[in-house]
Design brief:
By secondary structure, this protein is of the alpha/beta class. The protein has three domains: 103 residues, Rossmann fold (3-Layer(aba) Sandwich); 129 residues, 2-Layer Sandwich (Beta-Lactamase); 80 residues. The chain has a six-stranded antiparallel sheet with strand order 8-7-6-11-10-9, sandwiched between helices. Helix 5 runs antiparallel to helix 6. The radius of gyration is 45 Å and the shape is rod-shaped.
Length: 364
Amino acid sequence: MKPKVLIVDDEELSQDFLQRVLGNQYAFDHASDGASAISAAAAGRPDVILMDVEMPGMNGYDACRAIKDDPATAHIPVFFVSAHSAAQDRLKAYKSGGDDYVAKPFNPEELKHKIALALASQRKRNELAEKGRYTTSMAMTSLREAASAGAALGFLSDIVRQTEREQIAETTLHTLQRFHSGGAVQLRDGANHLSRSSTGACTPVEEAVLAKMAGENRIVDIGKRTAFNYERATIIVYDMPVDDPELYGRMKDTIVKMAEALDIHMRSLEVINGAHARGERLFALLKDYSAVSRDVGARLKMQREALQQLARENPAAAHDTLAQCQALEKTLDAMAARLDEALKNETAAAPPPAVTRFNSVELF
């Protein structure tokens, strides 16, 4: 596409002359006064403006000032082409925002050279601006990725310390809010499940959708909503950024890992809670055995005392029975001592921490 030059002059002969000087390597627009020059600059976005000074109505200085004050046209180079060649005329041109001043009569080659330099300079500025926009875009992308990673790692750091499903669900929904998204989560533990949404308890419709999603593929897109499914957990995000494919992809990658972390954590809690339950049952049994053994021991002592009295009255009849009671009493005393020691050790041992074991670097 040819560069466009806007020629502003109230004399058609001057317009024709400038157009012939520049040749057919440019496309041209024309304006005959300052006001129409402003309109033509805004509508046509020329690459260069050649501006006369003296024109009916608004003069070239005022028109240039208006063009430079408009952010949409401020970048367009304005060359004044005028028969006024005094120093004060040039000063007025520069004060109004003009980029150069060419006095009539002028050398055509000089004018063409100046325009070529202006266009080259403009191309360079455009390239730098584009690089700046690209750099800014990359920087913003990096910041968004850092924020996304920070939110995900914060989520992981929080849930490994949590053992209550209600708290885990709240942490998940809070993390979705950091992605500027609402959603719902369902945590499943065997036949039991807990469902929560960004607004609190799930509606019957949300409950039904979460239940249905549990048996679907790993990731299911439903318009702007996306479900992330694992056996023990489902996350549904309500307002995915479908209009921004890059951000959309990053959010999917992050949230599916969050769902995987929830699934692993729920499995770990099942194992830990099961171990705790078995330990409590064992502890209760040990306490029962200890109490029974002590009761039996007390009874045996009473029987021994009775037998000792019997032995004094009839030694031959009571001797064998007394020996058996004494042996049984020693056995029960030894068993009670071992049970007491086991109970002390069980009480002193701290329960294992409910910590999920998985590789955070692999997940995020």
